[in-house]
Write a structure and sequence with these properties.
The structure is a homodimer.
Chain A: E1 4-9, H1 13-24, E2 29-35, E3 46-47, H2 50-56, E4 62-65, H3 69-81, E5 85-88, H4 96-109, E6 113-115, H5 125-132, E7 137-145, H6 148-151, H7 167-180, E8 186-195, E9 203-209, E10 215-221, E11 229-236, E12 239-244, E13 249-252, E14 255-259, H8 264-277, H9 286-297, E15 299-303
Parallel strand pairs in A: 1-2, 1-4, 2-3, 4-5, 5-6, 7-10, 8-15
Antiparallel strand pairs in A: 7-11, 8-9, 9-10, 11-12, 12-13, 13-14
Helix pairs in contact in A: 1-8, 3-4, 7-9
């Protein structure tokens, strides 16, 4: 695997919690500098913005874009136009249209663009996908429920347009489902519960189907108290696959197949390194498209105001 | 141009107003039968559904799907799987995900799929596109305003999830803009006014930009009284192009270039014939993607109940 020099754009919670340890564990990835007008990291050259960082460090060949969603497009485009490889945190854009332009841009520039869906790197996902590949799915139940006050403390953006509300975690479930289910699936009906003081849903019930008529139900909820439920149960040809704890635990027909700690972001950086080495891009918009479909086609109901 | 035998799926207002005269004017298109559980046409074999129609008429090689949006996917897929070419009325699906599957399906079956954006066949559109192709756009103003009571009488579906509200006509403007503007463009901000008794907006103000930072503003409104306004003004390199009356009138720098009656659906069937003859598909999801982006990223405000 060829080495690469990385610049971080945006230095928030997700970078400190996840990106830094994963980068440290990726031997061929060398962190060079960061760009953020409000934050910096100890012992790392820090710049106000992407352009200043790239001007000062021409040795940077790749950047991770970890800023708030609505800022990502222009930063990612600027980096691509300067010939840098780009990793985009999830979701890859505030709109689907801007992601399409980034895909075209990366192709034109001959650099790698990677839309990172971290949940796809959970320990049980690859094997679940493999097991399902040749099967026909009859029924899927997804439950993705967590306490927003615990997992997104003070994150007011989540309730603003583009913040996606409960689809911010829900898109992780959709990123797994779109990866492991052997057929594409389509929204039939959605009920979005939107707090009276918010723009985005606090809970959602979704019904999908696939070309073979499978029944696929997802329940997303931010009002959970206690530990989160991040589970998926898939009924296929008389067997039952359960991917639980966000993908850390895989059980097939009551047999425990995998139970491991998550190292999703390590998997993510390993894939980024691989894409760069192979001069490839990987941008699957399916999870974001499913969310956009839910907003386009969902029935909104007003529910009580959310007070953190 | 090779001849083809056509079956109509869905026989509603748009079929009677637009498809029938256009089909009659397309010499190589032969109308064979229709499928609709509630309606039929004089002197044309009529069936309850698509399957019955195709069983009875194996000579049918192409179908036009003109049913309500939420029914189109399964009908289009069934037709494609039987090796038929498919024309989809706009929008090509209730969700973006199902359109992706139809694209894959048509490719697999080696048949033509045509997502019809009728407004792109308005008299002035092709020349506007040609004129703009090599230019840089600085500013665009779109005004798409009509009286919903006149243009969609009794169409309650328009206020239901998936009905799109004012984006039902607005998507026509977006289908023109995505065709003629020389760069892709992206939503920056949207304000959606939703009647308190509806699920979809009655008006929308949208701000887009393109990679060069153009200012693109669109105002959609269903509360117009009097004649509709279907206008687009584009400022580019010191010149001003105006495409008005839904694309029937093209003026560049105060010079009248085109003023013709619309024959959009004739253009549509001519393109369908061409696609079939050349074994090609044409499915541009950009207009539907822009609408989904507006629902995903727009700020919703409640406004007074709509009473027809």
């Amino acid at each position: 695997m060829s080495d690469f020099n990385l610049g971080l754009v945006g230095v928030g919670k997700i970078v400190r919690d996840q990106h830094l340890p994963a980068i440290a564990a990726t031997p061929n990835c060398h962190l060079v500098a960061s760009a953020d007008p409000f934050a910096s990291l100890p012992d790392l050259p820090a710049y106000q913005d992407l352009e200043a960082m790239l001007d000062a460090h021409p040795e940077i060949t790749a950047v991770s874009i970890c800023t708030p969603t609505h800022l990502r497009y222009s930063q990612a485009r600027a980096a691509l136009m300067r010939g840098k490889h780009v990793l985009l945190e999830k979701p890859p854009g505030a709109t689907l249209s801007e992601v399409e332009d980034l895909i075209a841009c990366a192709k034109e520039q001959g650099v790698s663009l990677f839309a990172a869906w971290h949940s796809r790197f959970a320990p049980g996902v690859a094997q679940a996908q493999q097991w399902l590949a040749e099967r026909q799915v009859q029924r899927v139940e997804v439950e993705w429920k967590e306490d927003v006050r615990v997992w997104h403390p003070g994150q007011a953006w989540i309730w603003q347009p583009g913040g996606m509300g409960v689809f911010d975690p829900g898109i992780n479930a959709l990123s797994i489902a779109t990866a492991i289910l052997p057929q594409p699936f389509f929204l039939q009906q959605a009920r979005l519960l939107v707090p009276s003081n918010a723009q985005t849903p606090i809970a959602a019930d979704l019904t999908f189907t696939d070309p073979q008529g499978a029944s696929i139900e997802a329940a997303f909820d931010f009002r959970q108290s206690g530990p989160p439920t991040w589970d998926m149960h898939i009924h296929s040809d008389g067997s039952r696959l359960s991917l639980t704890q966000g993908g850390c635990r895989l059980v097939i027909d009551d047999e425990l197949i995998i139970e491991e700690e998550e190292r999703e972001y390590q998997g993510l950086y390993a894939r980024f390194a691989e894409l760069i080495a192979n001069k490839r891009s990987e941008v699957d918009v399916a999870p974001l498209r499913q969310v956009a479909d839910a907003f386009l086609y969902g029935h909104r109901e007003s529910t009580e105001a959310f007070i953190e």
